C-alpha cells in the first residue's frame, strides 16, 4: 500500500475520501466472476474455422482479435455495458450493507429507502423510484441507440 501512497492506518470504510474507492473495488470484485464467465462463453462460442482461415491468410494475433474476436463478442460487450450502467445508477446493496449509506457513500436508492421507511414518506419515495426507473430507461435507450448497427446488433 505504501507504493500507492497509503501509509499507516487506512480507514477503508470510515474515511470519506476512501469509502467510495473501497466500495468500487468491492463491486468490481463481486461482479468479476460473472463477467469472466460471460466473456469466456462468448469467446468459446466463436467458430474456430475462422481463426484457422485467418492463420492461413497470415493474420496477426492483433488482427484476429480486432476483426474476428471483437466483432464476435460485441453483443456481449453491449449487454455488459447496459447491465453495468443500470447497476451503477441503481446501486444499493454494497454501500448499504458495508456502510449503511454513511460517510459519503449514500446513493439515490438508499435515500429513496430512507425516505420511505425512516421518514415514512411513501408517496415521495414512490416518486423517487419512478424517477429512477425513467432515468434507467432513458440511459438504456441511449445505449441501445449507440450500439445499434447495420448487422443486427441489440435493437
Written overview of the protein:
The protein has 155 residues and is an all-alpha fold. Helix content is 69%, strand content 0%. The protein has a single domain (2-147), classed as MetI-like fold (Orthogonal Bundle). The chain has helices at 19-44, 48-56, 61-89, 93-99, 108-117, 122-147. The longest helix has 29 residues, at 61-89. The chain is flat and about 65 Å long. The mean pLDDT is 90.
Q: What is the structural class?
A: mainly alpha
**SS summary, helix count:** 6
Helix content: 55-70%
Rg to the nearest angstrom? 21 Å
Question: Topology of this structure?
Answer:
Layout: H1 19-44, H2 48-56, H3 61-89, H4 93-99, H5 108-117, H6 122-147
Helix pairs in contact: 1-3, 3-6, 5-6
Short overview:
The protein has 155 residues and is mainly alpha-helical. It has helices at 19-44, 48-56, 61-89, 93-99, 108-117, 122-147.
Descriptive key words:
155 residues; MetI-like fold; 6 helices; 0% strand
Amino acid at each position: 500500500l505504501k507504493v500507492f501512497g497509503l501509509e499507516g492506518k487506512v480507514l477503508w470504510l470510515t474515511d470519506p475520501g476512501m469509502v467510495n474507492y473501497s466500495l468500487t473495488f468491492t463491486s468490481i470484485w463481486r461482479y468479476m466472476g460473472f463477467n469472466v464467465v460471460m466473456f469466456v462463453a462468448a469467446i468459446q462460442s466463436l467458430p474456430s474455422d475462422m481463426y484457422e482461415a485467418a492463420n492461413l491468410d497470415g493474420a496477426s494475433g492483433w488482427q484476429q482479435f480486432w476483426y474476428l474476436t471483437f466483432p464476435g463478442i460485441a453483443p456481449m460487450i453491449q449487454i455488459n455495458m447496459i447491465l453495468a450502467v443500470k447497476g451503477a445508477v441503481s446501486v444499493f446493496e454494497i454501500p448499504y450493507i458495508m456502510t449503511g449509506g454513511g460517510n459519503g457513500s449514500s446513493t439515490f436508492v438508499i435515500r429513496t429507502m430512507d425516505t420511505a421507511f425512516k421518514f415514512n414518506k411513501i408517496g415521495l419515495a414512490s416518486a423517487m423510484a419512478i424517477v429512477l426507473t425513467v432515468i434507467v430507461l432513458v440511459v438504456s435507450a441511449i445505449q441501445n441507440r449507440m450500439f445499434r448497427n447495420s448487422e443486427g446488433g441489440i435493437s
